[in-house]
Amino acid sequence: MSAARKSDARRRRSLAFWLFWLVAALVLLLLVSSCLRGGDAAPKPAEVTSQPQPEPMPTPEPKPGPAQPPAPMVEPTPAPPQPVEPEPAPAPVPTPTPPPEPVPEPTQEPASAPAPTPEPAPAPPPPAPSVQVGPSRGPSLAEGNAPAAYPLSARRRGEEGTTVVRARVDATGSVAHAEVARSSGVEAIDEAAVAAVRSWRFLPALDKGNPVASDVELPVVFRLRRPSPAGR
Fold first, then answer.
1. Residue 166 contacts residue 179 (beta carbons within 8 Å)
2. 177: DSSP letter
3. Of 135, 149, 138, which Cα lies nearest the Cα of 218?
4. Which of 214, 215, 162 is nearest to 193 (CA)?
5. What is the pLDDT of residues 143-165, one digit of tens each?
6. Is the pTM of this model over 0.90?
7. Is 230 a domain residue?
8. Is 153 part of any domain?
9. What are 180's strand-pairing partners?
């Protein structure tokens, strides 16, 4: 491999050497040809001919004539003054005459004028009635209500429970509407509780002493009585 590289390098050097001399010969040839052309086409000197110019004619000088006298100075004549008419005096403004002041006529008072009668003082208004504010409270059960009837079917099966009934109590204490608010889990017990609350009487709610309608929730408890042990 080294021998091949050395041979390639020698070839490149020889090729560059010959190319250099070839370019130098071409440049020398171009210089010689340009010199030969320049010697044949040398510029000839231009001939300049001058023609005689005519001399200018002399200008005749003016002859002196008789002296003329200077023109006399004429002074301007002043214009006559124009008469100025005086401005007319302004007409006098008439001064208005004030009207005569009226003379007050003498008034004659009656000899015996009655004295004015004083008006009676108005009576004071009656005192406003005092507003008494009564108590405010919610509805409550009245006395004498019958207890809720225990359903026979629930009694036989031994079912117990507590039903919360929501009732609408009017201003007279009667139940206008009743429904189950929280069930006991036994349908027969819920129906018995609602029926009992509908038949009950209440003391209506009071708003500042006045009966008003209101809502109330009542728990209705259903418990079976168990016989006590013997000997106790």
1. yes
2. E
3. 138
4. 162
5. 999 999 999 999 999 999 999 99
6. no
7. no
8. yes
9. 165
Q: Is residue 81 part of a domain?
A: no
User: Does residue 115 have a pLDDT over 80?
Assistant: no
| Tokens representing residue 83 in the block | 């008469």
Please give the Cα distance from 164 to 215 (Å, whole number). 13
**Can you give the CATH number for the domain in which 176 is found?**
3.30.2420.10
**Minimal CA–CA distance to 197: which of 224, 222, 220, 221?**
220
Provide the residue range defining the domain that includes 1: 1-34
SS3 category, 6:
helix
> How many separate domains does the chain show?
2
Any domain includes 147: yes
Listed residue (215, 230, 109, 121) closest to 164, CA to CA: 215
Q: In angstroms, rounded to a whole number, what is the distance separating the alpha carbons of residues 220 and 189?
A: 9
User: Which pair of structure tokens corresponds to residue 33?
Assistant: 């040809």
